[in-house]
Amino acid sequence: MRKINSIFSNISGVVAIILMGFPVYWMITTSFKPKGDILSINPTLIPHSFSISNYTQAVTKEGFVQALLNSLIVVFFTVTISIFIAMFAAIAVARMKFRGKQIYIASILIVQMLPLSALLIPLYLLLSKLHLTDKLGGVVFTYIAFVLPFVIWTLRGFLINIPAELEEAGLVDGCTRPQVYRLILFPLMAPGLVATSVFAFIQAWNEFLLAYILLSSQEKATMPIWLAGFTNRFGTDWGPLMAASTLTALPVVIFFSLIQNKIATGITAGAVKG
């Protein structure tokens, strides 16, 4: 029976990998196909010939460099500010006792449950009154509002697993509270900070709807909005679109690969207790 369960688990795992990986495989292979092969009525899993012309068209398309720079700016400030605020908020929730703590924790979960589409109009009206529409700063503030609950909740779960006695020992040895945070707590939080930073990075990098609504000028477009430019009233230019999508996914893949060990450690530690 155990052998049957093991075989079933392995087959299920292979099927899941195929289902999740096939769209990525199709995107990458399509990006190297000539236009004739892409539009063929008999598509092939393996390209008959490889061409980099789609990548050439993608990187030379108007707005590529500016969109890449805009996305990097938005992601950098979103992740940096979110992690800085969430770090101290998570410490307060995990370590301190204050009135309304349970309500605060519940509100974090409730905010994450709200559908984004239900908030688009109120957000646009609010940012319009603050003169933050069509500005990267307005997008950053909006992203922070949506990323913060997730980051606080994740860091709180990680902090709960760090013994409070370590902080108390530091205080007994003469450390001030800031020194305890800097010398003891923050180094132990490093895996959790890395894990949450990556997920915040992914959310901000891939977000399309809010940026599309808030940013109207082409020079302020982020990468997801720039990708939408490959589809127009005449149809979709599939080859360059797949090449551009592959290029857009590369920063996330590279960043994730470089620090995957810390991500695994952070997720495991932050998921044990709640």
Give the key terms.
single chain, 274 residues, mainly alpha, two-stranded antiparallel sheet, disordered C terminus
Structure description:
The protein is mostly helical and 274 residues long. The chain is built from 13 helices and two strands, in the order H-H-H-H-H-H-H-H-H-H-H-E-E-H-H. Strands 1-2 form a two-stranded antiparallel ribbon. A hairpin with a 2-residue loop joins strand 1 and strand 2. Helix 5 (101-113) packs across helix 7. The longest helix has 32 residues, at 64-95.
Structural class based on helices, strands and sheet pairing: mainly alpha
N-to-C series of helices and strands: HHHHHHHHHHHEEHH
Give helix % range.
over 70%
* Total of DSSP H or I helical runs spanning 4+ residues: 13
Mean pLDDT across every amino acid position = 83
Major β-sheet annotation: 2 strands, antiparallel
Low-confidence regions: 266-274
Cα distance spanning the termini: 34 Å
Overall geometry: globular
Rounded to an integer in angstroms, the radius of gyration calculated over CA atoms is 23 Å
* Strand percentage: under 5%
- With strands numbered from the N-terminus, the spatial order across the biggest sheet is 1-2
Strand elements, count: 2
